[in-house]
Amino acid sequence: MPLTTPWRSRALTAALLATVLTTSTACGDDAPGTSAGGSIKIGLLASLSGTYQAVGTEIRDGFQLYLDTHDGKLGGRQVDLVVADEGNGAQTAVPAATKLLKQDRVSALTGIVGGGSVAGVTPVLNETKVPLVGSNGRPELKDVSRIWHTSYLSDEPGAAIAQHVRDNVKGSVYAIGPDYQGGWDELRGFTDAFDKIGGKLANPDGKTTFTPFPATTNFLPYFARIKASGAAAVYTFYAGSAAVDFVKQYAQSEIKDIPLYAAGFLTEGGVLNAQGEAARDIYSVLNYSPDLDNAENRAFVAAWKAKHDGSPTTYALASYDAAAVLDRAIGAAGSDPTPEAINTAIGQLGQIASPRGTWQFSTTTHSPVQKWYLRQVRQDGRALSNTVVGDLATVGR
Amino acid sequence: MSGEVIRRARGAVAALVLAGLVVAPWVVDDYTTALLARTLALALVGVSVALLTGVAGLPTLGQTAPYAAGAYACAVVGSRISDVGVVQLVVAAGAGALLAALTVPLVVHARGVIVLMITLAIGELVVTVLGRWRSVTGGTDGLAGIPAVRPFWGLPALASDQARYLYALVVVATLIGVVLVLLRTRAGLVLRAGRDDETRLRASGHRVALHLSGAHIAAGAIAGAAGSLLVVAQQYISPADFGFDTSALLLLGVVIGGTASVGGALVGAALVIAVRDWLFGVLPGYAPLVLGALFVATVYLLPTGVTRARGRLRPPAAPAHQPTAAEQATVPELRR
Amino acid sequence: MIAVAAGPNRIDPYLIPALDGVAYGLLVFVAASGLVFCFGVANILNLAHGLLYAIGGYTAAAVLDGGWASLALALAVGVLAAAAAGALLAGLLTPVATGNHLSQALLTFGVALAGGSLLVAGFGPDDPQVRVPAALEGSVMVAGHRYAAYRLVFIVVAAVLAVALYLVVRRTRAGMLVRAAVDDPEMVACLGVSPARIRAGVLAAAGALAGAAGVLGAPIIGPGTDTADTVLLLSLVVVVLGGLGSMAGTLLAALAIGEIQTLGVALLPSAAPFLLFAAMAAVLAVRARGLAGRWRTT
C-alpha cells in the first residue's frame, strides 16, 4: 500500500503537466498568416528573459513603437503580432521559432538577438519558406535567400573605424574581445582592415586576445598584459554585463589613460548608465546615435521618449526599421501577401529612409549598406550620452 | 496484492502511452510533432542520467558531454560521409561511449555531490572545447546545413516532422527496451546492489569500480545515440544545446520522474523539457518564473514521492538513523 | 644573483593580478561561506545561494548614492533582506528531508529561477549602476602600479570579516552548536535544539553572509541577470574543493580560485577558459581516488 500513493501522485503530476501541454496545442489554430479581414500575422522572437533580456526588450519595443505610430498596421493590414521568447540562445530559440512558424503560421519572422539563434532557426525557415527580417545577430550563412537583416554584419563596425584609428593613434593598438563568434567577427573586422592599411597590433603574438565568455568578470589580468605591451590605444568589443565590467575596471586600472576605441555596443543603451563616469571619453563606432539630425530620427526619438525612459538604442532602431521594411514589403506584395511574395518584395525595396539615415539592402549579403558614425561619450545635460563627433565609412557588400 | 495491481496498471499505462505516441503525429499539429521529436532525444539523455543517478548511484550533471560528442560526431558523419541513420546512430553511440570511457577515471571513485561537481566540470569543459574547435564544430554559432537523414540504405530521406518524429520514436523505444532487458541481467542487479550497500558488495568479492565503469560507458553510449536524434530533429546543433541549463533540467526531470525507474525518468525528463520549450513560446518573458514555480510546486505535489526517492538511495530496511555506507558515500567529507 | 636581478621585471606584470586574486578570492570566500554552512551544518544543497547574493547586489545598487551613510544603510538592508530570504527558503524546505540533496536541488533550483526573474522584473533587465563612496571611486598606487581603491579596502574588510567569522564559529555558543551539528547531529538534537530551528538559523545566517558579500562585492561582481549563476557556480566549486566544516579549507579553496581566475589567466591566457574546471576536476578526482583507497583498506 505505501507504494501506491507516490506512484499515484507522480502520475497525477504527469497528467497535470500533460494536460497543460495538450490544451495548449489544441488552442493553436491553423489559420494561415493572412485572413480575409485584411490582417496579417507577424512573429517576433527576442530574448525576453535571461542574459540578453535588455537587448530583447529593446527589440520588442522598437517594433511595437512602429506599430503604435502607424495605427497597428503594416502595408495597410492590421497586424497580429505574435511574440515568443528566444531565451539565452538556440536551445530555447529553436522550439519557440518552430511554434511561431508551424503553429501560428506567421507570414514573416522578425527580431532574434543571438547569431546562434538565427543559425538554429534557419532550417525551420527554409522548411516553411517564411522570410526573416532579423534586427540584431547575424551568423555566417550559406544561403540568405530568405534572410534579411536591418542591423549589420558583425565585422563591419571594426572595418568602419580602422582608418580613423590608424590616422589618430601614434603607435600600436591592442585588440581584445570576448571568445565567441560575435567577438571573433567584430575583432576580425577591425584587425583585418587595420592590418591592410598598415596598422600594427600591440598584442605580443600579433593576434587578438580573446577572453572566456561569458565567464570573465575580472579583466584586470588582461589589463596588466596590455600595460606590459606598451600599446598606444586599445580596440575592443563587449556588450551587456561584460561591457559594464570591462569599462568600470578599465577606468580604475593602470591603463586608464590609454585611449579606448570600441564597437558602439560597449557603451550602448542601459550599459552606459551602469558604467557612469567610467565611460566618459570612450570613442565608439556605430550605425546610429539618438542625436543624429534628420527628420525621421527626430520623430523616432520623440515617439520613443514619449513611451520610455531614456533614448532609443541601435537595437530598438534596427527593430523599428524591420517593421518599416515589412510595412513597405507587405504593401508591395499585392492583394495576397504570402510569405514568398513578401520575401520577393523585400528584395525590390531599394532605398529605405530611416532614423539612421538612408540605407539599402546589399544584394549579396541581405544586410544594410549604411553609413557608420564615430561617437564619443560626453556630457549631455545631466547625463552622459554617445555624441556623434564625425562620419566614418559607408560599409556594406 | 497491491504490488501485482501496480505492476499491471503500470504495464497498461505504458502500453497506452506508447500507443498514444505512435498515433500522435496524425492527431497534433506540426509544431507539436517537432516539439515531441526534440523532446524524445532529450528524454533519452534523461534515461542515461537515471541509469547513472538512480541505478548506479552516481548523480550526474555531465551527461551532456557524451550527448554532445554523439551529436557532433553524427553531424560530421552526416555532412561528410553518410546520410544513413543507422550508421550515424552507431557512430554517435560510439563517440558517446568513447568520451564516457575517457572520463571514467575521473568519475567512478567519487560519490554523491562530488560526482555532481566533477561531471559538471566535464560538461563545461566539453562545451568550451566545442565552442573553440571551429574547424569541426562551427564554433559557438553551431553547425547548420546538416543533410536530412535516411533511416536505412535505400529508404527515402526524412523530410517531414512526422517522419523525423517516428524515426526518433522507433530508436528511443528500441534503446529503452535494450536498457530494460540489461537491467534485469546479473550486471544490472549488481549495479543496484552496489548503490544500496557498496561495502557489503565489495566484501562479497564484487569489483564495484568495474561495474560502475561499465554502467558509465553504457550511459555514455545511450546519450551519444540521443545526440544523433537531436541532429535529426533539429538539423542544427550548437554548444548552447549542451550547456549547464540542459544538464540541470535533465537531472531535475529525472528526479521528478523517479531516479531509479527508467520509465519515470523518461517521462520526467520529457515533461520538464517539453514544458520549458512550450513556455518560451506561449509566455514570452515569464518562462523562467513559471518553470521555477512549477519545480517548487512539484516538490509539494510529490511529498511522499520525494521521501521515497530518498529511500531509494539507502537500503530500505535500514533504521532511519543508522549511518550506512550509502550515507557515508553521499557526503564523504562529513565523516573525516 | 642573476635570478634576483631578473626577478622584479619578470614578476612585475603579475603583481597586480596576484593582489587582485586575493580580493577576488576573499569575495568568493565571503559569498561561499554561507553555502558551506548550509551544506556542512544543515546538510542542504542550496542552489538558490546565488540568488541571496544577487539580492544583496541589487540592494546595493538601489541604496548606494555615493555617500558613506548609504553604504552602511545598504549593508544593513542587504543583510536583512537576504537573511529573510534565507529564512523563507528554510520554511519552503520544511517538507523536504535533510540530506535528500536531489529534492533540495529541485526546490532550490526552482526558487532560484523564479526569484531571479522576479529580481529582474523589479530592477529591470539592465545592469544597475553601483555608486560607491567617492573616496573609494578612484585608484591608488601600489608598488608603482595603479589599483582600484575600493578593491584594496575590500581586501581589508573581507579579511576582518573572515577573522570575525572564525571567532564566531570557534568561540560562541552558536558556533559550538554549529560545529557540533557537523560532528554529531543527533547529539545536538538530544540537547533540545530542534533541527528545524538549526536549519532556519543556518539558512538565515547563510543569507546574511551572502547578502553582505552581495553588497560589499557589488563593485566587483555586480548585480545583473547572470550574477546569481556566476556566484552559485563559484561557491559550489569552493564548497566542494574546500571540504566541509573547515573554515581554513574554505578560505584556501576560495583564494586558490581567486588566483586561478586572475594570476592563472595572466600567466596562461590561452588556457583561461579551461583553468577553473580542469583544476577542479583534477583535484576532486585525485581526492576521491584517495578516499576510495582509504575505504578499501579499512
User: What order do the helices and strands of chain A follow?
Assistant: HEHEEHEHEEHEHEHEHEHEHHHEEE
The order of strands across the largest sheet of chain C is 1-2
Helix/strand order of chain C, N-terminal first: HHHHHEEHHHHHHH
When the domains of chain C are counted, the total is 2
Give the overall pLDDT of chain C as a whole number. Answer: 86
Largest sheet of chain A: 8 strands, mixed
Cα shape of chain A: globular
The average pLDDT score of chain A comes to 90
Oligomer: heterotrimer
Task: Provide a count of the helices of chain C.
Answer: 12
Cα separation of the termini of chain A: 73 Å
Write down the CATH topology of the largest domain in chain A.
Rossmann fold
Tally the structural domains of chain A: 2
Produce a short descriptive summary.
The complex is a heterotrimer of chains A (397), B (336) and C (298). With 397 residues, chain A is α/β, with parallel strands linked by helices.
What does this structure look like?
- Chain A is an alpha/beta fold.
- Chain A is 42% helix and 20% strand.
- In chain A, β7, α6 (181-196) and β8 (209-211) form a beta-alpha-beta unit.
- Chain A starts with a helix and ends with a strand.
- With 336 residues, chain B is mostly helical.
- In chain B, α2 (30-55) packs parallel to α7 (161-184), α2 (30-55) packs across α11 and α8 packs across α10.
- Chain C has 298 residues and is mainly alpha-helical.
- Chains B and C meet through α4, α5, α11, α13 and α14 of B and α4, α10 and α12 of C.
